[in-house]
Structure formats: C-alpha cells, structure tokens
Amino acid sequence: MRISVIGCGYLGAVHAAAMAQLGHDVVGVDVDPAKVDALSHARAPFFEPGLPELLREAADTGRLRFTTDMGEIAGAQVHFICVGTPQKRGEFGADLAYVDAAFDGVMAHLGPDGVVVGKSTVPVGTAERLAQRLTDAGSTATLVWNPEFLREGFAVQDTLHPDRLVYGVPAGEAGERAKAALDEVYATPLSEGTPLVVTDYATAQLVKVAANSFLATKISFINAMAELCEATGADVTSLADAIGHDARIGRRFLNAGLGFGGGCLPKDIRAFMARAGELGVDQALSFLREVDSINMRRRVRMVDLAREVCDGSIVGRRVAVLGASFKPDSDDVRDSPALSVAAQMQLQGARVVVTDPQAIDNARAKWPDLSFAETAEEAATDADVVLLATEWTEYRELNPEKLATVVRSRNIVDGRNVLDPATWRAAGWTYRALGRP
Ligand SMILES: NC(=O)c1ccc[n+]([C@@H]2O[C@H](COP(=O)([O-])OP(=O)(O)OC[C@H]3O[C@@H](n4cnc5c(N)ncnc54)[C@H](O)[C@@H]3O)[C@@H](O)[C@H]2O)c1
C-alpha cells in the first residue's frame, strides 16, 4: 500500500521506517530539511535504539524515502499525521497549529478514496473538527483517529509489535472503508494477534490522554508516598515492592524518584485539563493538577537534598548531574526533570556540570549556560555532590570506590532509587535518595 507520513520526529520517523519494513511503499515528509537529509541517508536524526538498523533495512527495500515536498504525497492512499502538539506558551492547552498545517497540506493532495489517519495526541474534538473540514470541502476521503502508544527507548519494537491498536472511525460505510484500509496497513501486527479496538472519534482521542493520565497518576501516587516516607523515616522502595505484589496494583510505574517528564506526559495531562475546562467538566480532572504539582515538587526536593548534603548551601559548590534526557535510552530533553534540576541549581549559584550518554547536544541547545562533560567521571571530578537524575544503565552500574577517587566530597543523591544504599555507604559515601531514609 502507498503511504505518506507527515512529520518525521520521534513518532513519525519510526512509523515511516516500520511501515516500509512491513511491506508498504512509504514517503515521509517533514518541514525540517536537516531531518529529511539525515533520514534520506538512512541516518537517525535522534537517538532511538534499533532505529539506525531499521532505517537501513527499510532503505534497502527501496520502499522508503523522505522529502520536504508535500507534493510527493500525491498518489498515496493512506496519510498519517504525526506532527507535534506541544503545550501552548503560557497556557495549558495544546498548540494545534502543526496539526492544522499538516492537514491543510494533506487536503491539497488527497485522492477521493484517500484515508487521513491522525496519530498525534490531540484534544478530544479535534478529529470531529478535521472531519468536518473534509465534508465542507466536498471531499469523499475519510479521517480515522489512530492514537500512538509507542514508548521512546522501545519505539521500534512498539511500532512493529504494538500492544494494541485503536481506530476511531466515523459511522457507516466511510468508517468501514477506512477500517479496511487500516487493517491492510497493520496486516502483520493484526495477524500476530494484536488486540484491536474499533470505536468512535471521541473515544479514540480520549484513550490516549486517559492512558497517559493514568500512568502520570501512578507515578505521582508513589511520589506522594515518598513524601510520607520522608516524613516518617519509611522506605518507599520497600513500600512499592509490598503494594506492587497486589496484582490489582502491580509493581510497574511505581518507581519513586524525580518524576516524569518528556514530550508527552506533562503536556498531555495539562492539555487534558484545559480541554475538560472547555467542556465544562473541569472537576473531573482536577486531580491531575495535584498529579502535576506532586511531580514538580520532586524536582525541588532533589535540589533541597543536594543542599542538605552540602551543609546547607550550594552557592559555589560543584555539582555533577548524571543524565540530561528525560528518561534513559533516549536523547529527548523536552521537559526533562534532570535538566530542570540542573538549571535550578545553577540559578541558585552552584557550578553545575551535566553529563549524558546521548543527550548532551540537545541539552546544550536548550540550556547553553550549563557546562557539559562527556563522562560521569569527568562530570564528577572535584564535585561536592553527585546527582543521579536519569537512570541510564551506566549510571546504575557506577563503581562507588572508583568514583570516590575523583570527587571532592563523597555525596550522592539518587534521584531514581536505582543505587544500592548499603554499597555506597560502605564505600564512604553520604547517600541520600527521594523517599528513603
Ligand atoms: N514521542 C513519543 O514518544 C510519542 C508517543 C506517542 C504519541 N506522541 C505524539 O505524537 C506527536 C508527535 O510527537 P513527536 O515526539 O514525534 O514530536 P517531534 O517534535 O519529535 O516531531 C514532530 C515533527 O513534525 C514536523 N512538522 C511540524 N510541522 C510539520 C508540517 N506542517 N509538515 C511536516 N512536518 C511537520 C517537525 O519538524 C518534527 O520533525 C505528538 O502529538 C505527541 O504527543 C509522541
């Protein structure tokens, strides 16, 4: 099947390559010429495990190309909209300018049997509005909402083998035609037994933000428990293990620490609250405001812990921050808790050096005033305190004896509860963590 993918960022680049790998003929379009150039040479424009290999394999099939020219989507039957929906400046709501621009571009080249597939995360009501635009223009093409659930760091696997597929389709024959087209696109994962939920537009759009809200709530729940643990001398990691044994609760997403960040969870829960307000049901989501505040408080608490181990002041102290990406196995620094902590400490007078295995370039572009080092050892050299802010495997496996030889003072704050306190304390370190004695 001939497919176009509009927007080739973390979602779209992986989607385009995966669709070619599944046997389709794919053109990816992006407004960023540097991204298109990299992708056209089968180079990943960002760090995502497995993407370089997938791009090379897909390029070798001759079924994958990238362009900045929207005209090249003409002739494709299915068009995926994968552009960003960032938080509006100074507001909670989502900025739909990119979605609208991409949709305009697609409409200009859409055939009568065309299917437009929205994958971006949008406020409920967006699909209905875009479908109406097709109707108003007299188009017989159909819109489907097919939210994406991939996780950065696992994006290739999640796209080739999704844990579920959701189609939001219009009623009637148009919906059936659109479903048949998407069934053909996803023939391979469907044949592997991937669960499929076919529903209406509103539900499909809500599924995505509901899922992200649930995950954010679970993380903030355990972080709220961490605050209680800090007030009582309890250990949130044991608490999480114990409640996680209850199958109704489960242990996943119960890792207390510096909280969530990235290009999805924070802006999605805020956009969801903003949309609920517009719909007159803001009370239904007022708990998300608390979820957001608990999450942001953890960043402040991390700075406070660093100050405590530095005898009450970080002014002039050298601070090593291990991690810049919002999570391991990604170079994405959007709303990164690690960088937020680093920047707060720098503003408060500390001399901060940040390191990360993959995200230094992105971090430097966003926070040019911070200093950066290539390795944990380099960052920690002469440090008064080391902060573990993103749980990359190489930081989990740091040797406390070895690191002790480069720092000025053996102080570590484990922002992700991934180090063994006993081992670090035995090596002479003052070990502090969020939610642990
Ligand atoms: N990143 C994820 O893990 C993830 C997971 C699920 C859903 N989503 C959702 O997917 C959407 C995209 O997210 P992302 O992380 O890939 O964002 P991104 O910023 O990495 O990518 C968006 C891309 O769209 C391009 N673009 C913008 N306007 C365009 C236009 N008019 N025509 C062509 N290209 C255009 C940009 O240049 C950029 O490359 C968002 O709505 C996001 O919430 C993301």
UniProtKB/TrEMBL annotation:
Catalytic activity line of the entry: UDP-alpha-D-glucose + 2 NAD(+) + H2O = UDP-alpha-D-glucuronate + 2 NADH + 3 H(+)
EC no.? 1.1.1.22
So where does NAD(+) get bound? D30, K35, T85, T121, E152, K267, R334
Q: Which enzyme class, named as a word? A: oxidoreductase
Keywords, A to Z? NAD, Oxidoreductase
Q: Give the highest taxon in the source lineage.
A: Bacteria
Please indicate if the UniProt record lists Oxidoreductase as a keyword. yes
Q: Which Pfam families match?
A: UDPG_MGDP_dh, UDPG_MGDP_dh_C, UDPG_MGDP_dh_N
User: What InterPro entries is this protein classified in?
Assistant: 6-PGluconate_DH-like_C_sf, NAD(P)-bd_dom_sf, UDP-Glc/GDP-Man, UDP-Glc/GDP-Man_DH_C, UDP-Glc/GDP-Man_DH_C_sf, UDP-Glc/GDP-Man_DH_dimer, UDP-Glc/GDP-Man_DH_N, UDPglc_DH_bac
The UniProt entry, under SUPFAM superfamilies, shows:
6-phosphogluconate dehydrogenase C-terminal domain-like (SSF48179), NAD(P)-binding Rossmann-fold domains (SSF51735), UDP-glucose/GDP-mannose dehydrogenase C-terminal domain (SSF52413)
Start and end residues of each UDP-glucose/GDP-mannose dehydrogenase C-terminal domain: 320-421
| GO BP terms in the entry | polysaccharide biosynthetic process; UDP-glucuronate biosynthetic process
A GO molecular function for this record? NAD binding
The positions annotated for binding substrate are: F149, L150, R151, E152, K208, F253, L254, N255, A256, G257, G261, K327
Q: In which pathway does it act?
A: Nucleotide-sugar biosynthesis; UDP-alpha-D-glucuronate biosynthesis; UDP-alpha-D-glucuronate from UDP-alpha-D-glucose: step 1/1
Q: Which residues form the active site?
A: C264 (nucleophile)
Entry similarity comment: Belongs to the UDP-glucose/GDP-mannose dehydrogenase family.
Name listed for the protein in its UniProt record: UDP-glucose 6-dehydrogenase
Q: Which organism is it from?
A: Cellulomonas aerilata
